[in-house]
Design goal:
Elements: H1 2-17, H2 20-24, E1 35-36, E2 44-45, E3 52-57, H3 58-64, H4 69-73, E4 79-83, E5 89-93, E6 101-105, E7 108-109, E8 132-139, H5 143-146, E9 153-159, E10 166-176, E11 181-191, E12 198-209, E13 223-236, E14 241-256, E15 274-291, E16 295-313, E17 319-338, E18 344-359, E19 367-371, E20 379-397, E21 403-414, E22 418-432, E23 435-446, H6 450-454, E24 456-464, E25 471-477, E26 485-498, E27 501-513, E28 516-529, E29 532-543, E30 546-560, E31 564-577, E32 586-599, E33 602-615, E34 625-637, E35 643-649, E36 655-656, E37 661-662, E38 665-673
């Protein structure tokens, strides 16, 4: 495989370098990317960042009529977005899992569930798209700057800041070909503008997911409404210093209508339980930022509280089960960024964070009272606390006009997992102003979540698994001796700028060690139910084995004339465990294409992706499949700022129930700014 990757890199470099002299001889107006902050935690152009950085601008979100951040991210090469049955967005970068992607808002962590697989889920639904200016996606290990969870990369959601006072309103309404109606979203935002000492912003919105029928009187997936509120203010103490504060709260109410089970012909219907799931995420923070002329510095304080209140109900609305979780994090972070000192630009940072999980799902030696809902028997709560401390140092060194070298080193320690060192070295070599080579090597890690350490939960009871197996109860237990997953990451890329666009080719490889997975460790016989066996299956989380994720990416964008822009990407992925078996829920080949038109007041977009050799964990048989999802949008903008648009999602009516593709969807929408 190593020789194969080396041959691919040589071929790609030759293909991009050969036409460079002739194409650029006519013009020096190279395509310049935007300024980004996520890759090195300092402001720089995309071309000067050592890692692969892709940016989704507000302009692009408008072109697609995006109503969620997931829709905004789905068209990025190297990004694979999936929606589970609970309507949660899972974002995978370069074949890594959801838990290996760190999601930030304005550079700050945001709290989520205590479950490893669902830690980042629902994050994209909790941020109103009306409040987002751009999304920066850094692919590749970034633990040297961000610590745990950044093994696959970082997604940083940058919120909007208007120069002039403005009031904006947006909304859309739609339906699906399977008969689901009432999908809608709306958002209202006011910005005081930046030309004043006191600046403030407020936004509020809603995103409603319509129920899809399961054909048996119930809903196929979770449905409901997320309502995000965001308030922020900033005061300029002087030209060199400012203070600010923010508050965000999202209430997400979801339901599942159980309907009835499939039974033998003529037998009475057996109804499933309904589900009520309410999550509330509250984040508050403050910061101080200054500039001494020789350096910039910033102190951040942040508190996040996530609660989940889950219950199941019989058809008579009697509570049949409850589940409660409260997850709080609080911390402080300090960053000191020197102005260039000769050929060097050092960056120093330190962070402190505490985490506490209280839940009916865990069992520890620290009881936290009882949880009571309605007449259902009170359930015991237990608590687990973890403290994290870290310090990091980075230098941006330019020994010559051609070379830029960025070494970084981070030390993390906690009372649960000991110390973790995360070194990284990035380098850029400019063969010419329009042709660059980039390379990175680094170490990353992912700590287990509270659930994996202390699970004590009956996942389900008396589920019929077929005549031979019978009825099964599923009992899950945690493992306090779990070690963090670690990884070693390599990538090398070549970027070429043209007068009309840019193209980038990348080869990457990640090796994961101490991979965390669950395993069935015990089967116990409990007797019989209606003549069928009744068993208890016990699962536990463990470290074990290794995984290798490697592949190649090709991505670019191209302007055609004055009205058209094309974007394209191709990803090849080879992801396997230590036994050489392919990892699930990944496509071996993925092609992303987009065509965008702007002419006068009209705009149009056609974009989507096609995946081949996708190995799904939801399928009854583990066999590769292929599918494509394509979307279209057309809009008209009046000179007074009003824009009307219509969007067709899943244009060709692909239906993959296990992947929540349930047919074609239509939306009409509007945006207006005063």
């Amino acid at each position: 495989m190593k020789q194969y990757l080396e041959r691919r890199l040589t071929a790609l470099t030759f293909a991009l370098a050969v036409p460079a002299g002739t194409v650029l001889a006519a013009s020096a107006d190279y395509h310049l990317g935007p300024v980004v902050v996520t890759a090195t935690r300092t402001e720089e152009r995309v071309q000067d960042a050592p890692a692969a950085v892709q940016v989704v601008t507000r302009h692009e979100m408008t072109d697609r009529g995006a109503s969620t951040l997931g829709e905004a991210l789905a068209a990025i090469p190297g990004v694979q977005l999936s929606i589970d049955a609970k309507s949660r967005s899972h974002v995978n970068l370069r074949g890594m899992e959801n838990r290996h992607t760190l999601i930030l808002v304005d550079g700050q962590r945001i709290g989520g569930d205590i479950n490893q697989g669902a830690g980042n889920a629902h994050v994209l639904e909790r941020i109103g798209i009306q409040d987002v200016e751009r999304i920066e996606v850094v692919q590749g290990a970034s633990s040297a700057l961000y610590g745990s969870d950044a093994v696959g990369g970082v997604i940083n959601i940058i919120t909007r800041r208007s120069q002039e006072p403005s009031l904006s309103l947006r909304g859309s309404y739609g339906s699906f070909s399977d008969g689901a109606r009432g999908q809608y979203d709306y958002g209202l935002r006011y910005d005081s503008g930046s030309d004043r000492a006191l600046r403030y912003r407020i936004s509020y919105g809603a995103l409603h997911q319509a129920p899809h029928s399961n054909g048996r009187g119930g809903s196929l997936y979770y449905y409901g409404t997320a309502r995000p509120l965001a308030i922020s203010a900033e005061y300029m103490l002087s030209e060199q210093a400012r203070v600010g504060a923010m508050y965000r709260r999202t209430v997400h109410q979801q339901y599942v209508d159980g309907g009835y089970k499939e039974t033998k012909p003529g037998a009475p219907k057996q109804f499933r339980d309904d589900t009520d799931n309410r999550t509330v995420t509250t984040t508050a923070g403050a910061y101080y930022e200054g500039n001494s002329g020789e350096a910039r510095y910033r102190l951040d304080l942040q508190y996040t509280r996530y609660t989940k209140d889950y219950a199941t109900f019989s058809r008579a609305r009697e509570i049949t089960g409850v589940d409660y979780t409260r997850h709080t994090t609080a911390g402080a972070a300090f960053r000191y960024d020197w102005q260039p000192l000769g050929s060097h630009r050092p960056l120093l940072g330190a962070e402190y964070r505490t985490e506490e999980g209280v839940s009916t799902r865990i069992g520890t030696s620290d009881p936290a009272g009882m949880y009571q809902r309605g007449d259902y028997p009170a359930q015991p709560l237990h608590r687990l606390r973890i403290k994290y401390r870290s310090a990091y140092l980075q230098d941006t060194w330019e020994p010559s006009s051609r070379w830029r070298i960025i070494p970084a080193l981070r030390l993390d320690s906690s009372d649960a997992f000991g110390s973790q060192w995360s070194p990284k070295l990035g380098a850029i070599y400019r063969l010419r102003d329009d042709l660059r080579f980039k390379a990175n090597v680094g170490r990353g890690y992912v700590t287990p979540r509270i659930t994996e350490l202390a699970y004590r939960f009956m996942m389900f009871q008396e589920v019929f698994m077929g005549p031979r197996v019978g009825y099964v109860d599923s009992w899950w237990i945690g493992n306090p001796d779990l070690r963090p997953e670690t990884s070693v990451s390599y990538d090398i890329s070549v970027e070429k700028d043209f007068a009309a666009g840019q193209i980038r080719a990348t080869l990457f490889r990640q090796q994961l060690h101490d991979y965390i997975h669950y395993r069935r460790i015990k089967v116990e016989k409990l007797g019989q139910i209606q003549g069928f066996p009744h068993q208890l299956w016990t699962y536990r989380y463990e470290n074990g084995g290794e995984a290798t994720v490697q592949g190649a990416e090709l991505a670019g964008e191209w302007r055609i004339g004055t009205h058209w822009e094309m974007r394209f990407g191709y990803n090849y992925l080879d992801a396997r465990n230590g036994a050489g078996e392919r990892l699930y829920d990944r496509a071996r080949h993925k092609v992303d294409l987009g065509a965008y038109y702007h002419g006068g007041n009209w705009s149009a977009a056609l974009w989507g992706s096609r995946q081949w050799s996708y190995l799904s964990s939801f399928a009854e048989e583990a066999r590769p499949e292929a599918f494509g999802i394509w979307n279209a949008n057309i809009g008209y903008t009046w000179n007074n700022g009003l824009r009307l648009y219509t969007t067709v999602e899943n244009l060709f009516n692909a239906n993959r129930t296990e992947r929540t593709f349930v047919g074609r969807g239509w939306r009409i929408g509007m945006e207006y700014t005063w």
